[in-house]
UniProtKB/TrEMBL annotation, chain A:
Residue ranges of domain ABC transporter in the record: 7-233
InterPro entries noted in UniProt: AAA+_ATPase (IPR003593), ABC_transporter-like_ATP-bd (IPR003439), ABC_transporter-like_CS (IPR017871), P-loop_NTPase (IPR027417)
Source taxon at top rank: Bacteria
Key words of the record: ATP-binding, Nucleotide-binding, Transport
Pfam families xref list: ABC_tran
GO MF terms, alphabetically ordered: ATP binding; ATP hydrolysis activity
Name by which UniProt lists this protein: ABC transporter ATP-binding protein
Family (UniProt): Belongs to the ABC transporter superfamily.
Keyword Nucleotide-binding: yes
UniProtKB/TrEMBL annotation, chain B:
PANTHER family assigned: INTEGRAL MEMBRANE PROTEIN-RELATED, MEMBRANE PROTEIN
Keyword flag Glycoprotein: no
Keyword Transcription regulation: no
UniProt entry keywords in alphabetical sequence: Membrane, Transmembrane, Transmembrane helix
Protein's UniProt name: ABC transporter permease
């Protein structure tokens, strides 16, 4: 028997006046899963997260959260927590006071839970400092701590890694993966593809209110096609010659100047790239690096949302020598 | 995905809204955590005591303020000076600061969604915020009252207080009346607080919401300076800010006060209801929400303007009010009464043979601006002659007063001779110089009294 389903949305449509924010959106998130929500600005991510938090109701469609059908505003079941558009904190209160007031509001035992939540996000040292002086990253972590107070079974968070330094990011990642390991579902939106790639086995990509992809990250690669790769070698001129002779490979650009001096950008299937590396080694050219110009998830995002098709903004950039 | 969906039943598992007492406490914590609120609370509880004590111990008194000239004589006068100032500025500004910001603060901080997810009931959020801001405003008002009283009593003592018609209130009566006066001022304070809530809800993070009670106060003060028809004056929500003075005459001028309190409470209820309606209709998913002038006009200004028109009609229909309410007969009666009471006070100071008001049979004859001007309405061109009799003296005494009558019915009578009666601001007594109560004194005309009843009285 599989895990229970934390979110099940079918045909969700939500409009604000004449603007259709969500159009026939389906979403499924299992308990214990971290699910990423990606999309350009205005794609409908925040609206969808707001529906999951009960801040609004869909105009059409069916939404079940933690097994309960949600039919009106603020009627989501207990166990749902999170934030959209910032963590919602009161700057005149300290971190501890923010959490204590919130815990009391929801009828939870404050002292132990608050301390534990602060520790989880790494804010114990600044627990008695006013939030007014907190950086964006610290606020994000405190917002996450506030969500943890209720021991959520569904955590809904908007851009949790916004403004985080590497240490803060590590804390947040640890909390999110820990929650999922304990059986909670996490739905998070982010513009940071590295975060999504690191945390989310499954993602949903939204574009202008519609789902353009939903499923495992690994499946995304098939949606993208060939990626541009940046090739750095010991001999750029020789590398270019070898690349030109490699079947199935195209040279997109290079070798460049300045910061990109000696870098060749090539495009082709994985097999052609493997072949290129073998040929370079055979030709006595040392391969110092071969990596995608744009990470696969980002490339998929750009391709699926249509952003990559705009001149100069996509993963392919301008082809120099199509073959 | 292998998943087993939990059965989707009705919303039986739905989270309940946070209980109202918890929401109220949360709002109170947020309000009291703001340094400006804490600072103002401290000022309210300390400032008036310091002010009253300091002024009471000085030689020059704020004689242009009602009861200011009595601050040397009675500790209760200081609190009434504070009340007068509070009604003009402090209370509207306090409501601006607290109620005018209680909703807007969430817009400014971007915390609405967070709060909604935590409380899960816009209705409870509204009630909790309204109650919390009311609590803080009441605490500030209580501070102003208690502090002013404490300062006056500490500096001068609880001596009897001369009322606005010159009659003496014992210390106990003065204490009771001062407290009632402060309580009456709560009605317009609530009205201003409700307008603050309305502005805060309607205008979002715009500072105009914060300023609405203050702007309303300025507008109403300007209106009250104009010679408005008395029915319009009584229909203004700030009327009780002035009408409490009627408590300090004998008999008390209760009708304007009751109307003022009722109008204040109706405004408080109406503005709160409008704010509630607006709040419950708000779309919290609209991030661009920032209030709008049109919304304020349609949802706030027009209904309250309609309420004012309705109130004017009701007052005009149910009371004998007409014109400015300041008429020669009423002014003459008020001046004669005050003169008789204060003559007795002067008699006691100078240890002359005791005399009663009835024996004095004081009357006044007033004229406004000569023959070419009608003897009615406010102005500083009233000239009155007071006539009185002493037992065993055949001839009647006369004294002249110049009156500056303001549109709210308050007047200052300035003695213009003879100098033995009202020519000097001090009188020489056996124990030294003392203020001459007949030199200059305050009075209050009941704007709603009919001239006939004034004549009978």
């Amino acid at each position: 028997m599989g895990r229970s389903r934390a979110v099940r949305a079918r045909g969700i449509t939500k409009s604000f006046g004449e603007v259709v924010a969500l159009d026939d959106v389906d979403l499924e998130v299992e308990a214990g899963q971290v699910h990423g929500l990606v999309g350009p600005n205005g794609a409908g991510k925040t609206t969808l997260l707001g529906l999951l938090l009960g801040l609004a109701v869909a105009d059409r469609g069916r939404l079940e959260i933690l097994g309960t059908q949600v039919g009106r505003t603020l009627a989501v079941p207990d166990g749902v927590a999170g934030f959209v558009d910032g963590p919602g904190l009161y700057p005149s209160l300290t971190a501890r006071q923010n959490l204590t007031a919130l815990a009391r509001l929801r009828g939870h035992d404050s002292a132990g839970g608050v301390g534990e939540a602060l520790e989880q996000v790494g804010l114990t040292d600044v627990a008695d400092d006013r939030v007014r002086g907190f950086s964006l990253g610290m606020r994000q972590r405190l917002g996450l701590a506030a969500a943890l107070l209720t021991r959520p079974r569904l955590l809904v968070i908007d851009e949790p890694a916004n403004g985080l330094d590497p240490a803060g990011k590590r804390h947040v990642h640890r909390v999110i993966t820990g929650l999922a390991a304990d059986g909670a579902a996490v739905v998070m939106s982010s513009h940071r593809m590295d975060d999504l790639a690191a945390l989310c086995p499954e993602v949903t990509i939204l574009s202008t209110g519609r789902v353009v992809f939903s499923g495992p990250v690994s499946k995304l690669a098939a949606e993208v096609g060939d990626l541009d790769h940046r090739l750095r070698t010991s001999d750029p001129a020789a590398a270019r010659e070898v690349a030109e002779g490699t079947p199935g490979l195209r040279i997109v650009r290079g070798p460049g100047d300045g910061a990109d001096a000696g870098v060749l950008v090539v495009r082709g299937p994985v097999e052609a790239l493997d072949d290129l590396v073998v040929r370079l080694v055979g030709a006595g050219v040392a391969v110092r690096g071969l990596a995608p110009v744009v990470p696969p998830l980002e490339a998929a995002f750009l391709a699926l949302t249509g952003i990559g098709t705009e001149p100069g903004t996509g993963p392919g950039e301008t082809e120099e020598d199509p073959r | 995905m292998t998943a087993t969906a939990a059965p989707a039943g009705p919303a039986a598992d739905e989270a309940r809204p946070a209980p109202l007492p918890r929401g109220y406490r949360f709002e109170l914590v947020k309000l009291l955590s703001q340094w400006r609120i804490r600072l103002v609370l401290a000022v309210c509880w300390i400032g008036p005591a310091a002010f009253v004590a300091a002024v009471s111990l000085q030689t020059s008194l704020p004689a242009d303020t009602v009861f200011g000239r009595w601050m040397h004589a009675s500790g209760w006068a200081g609190s009434l000076v504070v009340l007068g100032f509070s009604c003009s500025w402090a209370l509207p500004l306090l409501t601006s600061l607290v109620a005018g910001d209680v909703f807007a603060a969430e817009d400014r901080l971007g915390t609405w969604r967070h709060l909604l997810v935590a409380v899960r009931s816009p209705r409870r959020i509204f009630v909790a915020k309204a109650l919390a801001s009311l609590t803080v405003i009441l605490a500030m008002t209580a501070g102003l009252a208690a502090s002013g009283i404490a300062g006056g009593l500490a500096a001068v003592g609880g001596h009897p207080l001369a009322g606005l018609d010159g009659h003496m209130l014992s210390s106990a009566d003065a204490a009771t009346t001062v407290l009632i006066a402060w309580c009456c001022a709560l009605a317009p304070t609530l009205a201003f607080a409700a307008v603050g809530l309305l502005g805060s809800v309607a205008l979002g993070r715009s500072p105009m919401g914060l300023l609405m009670p203050a702007l309303l106060a300025v507008g109403l003060q300007l209106a009250q300076m104009l010679p408005l028809p008395v029915a319009v004056r009584m229909a203004l929500p700030s009327e009780a800010f002035l009408a409490w003075r009627g408590l300090f005459t004998d008999p008390a001028q209760t009708r304007p006060l009751l109307i003022g309190v009722a109008v204040g409470l109706v405004w408080a209820a109406a503005a709160t209801a409008l704010a509630y309606r607006l709040f419950m209709r708000r779309d919290f998913t609209d991030l661009a929400y920032d209030g709008s002038g049109r919304r304020v006009t349609v949802s706030g200004v027009l209904p309250l303007a309609g309420l004012t028109v309705l109130t004017v009609a009701v007052i005009a229909w149910t009371t004998p009010a007409h014109g400015s309410g300041i008429e020669r007969v009423k002014l003459e009666r008020s001046l004669a009464t005050s003169y008789a009471h204060l003559y007795r006070l002067q008699t006691r100071e100078l240890h002359r043979p005791a005399v009663t008001e009835a024996q004095l049979r004081a009357t006044a004859s007033c004229d406004k601006g000569g023959d070419r001007v009608a003897d009615e309405g406010p102005g500083n061109d009233w000239r009155c002659v007071v006539t009185w009799h002493l037992p065993g003296v055949a001839s009647a005494g006369t004294a002249i007063y110049q009156l500056d009558v303001t549109a709210d019915g308050r007047y200052v009578a300035d003695g213009d001779g003879p100098k033995e009666v009202n020519g000097y601001f001090q009188v020489r007594t056996s124990s030294g110089d003392a203020p001459n109560p007949l030199w200059q004194f305050d009075g209050d005309v009941d704007l709603l009294a009919s001239p006939a009843s004034a004549q009978k009285g």
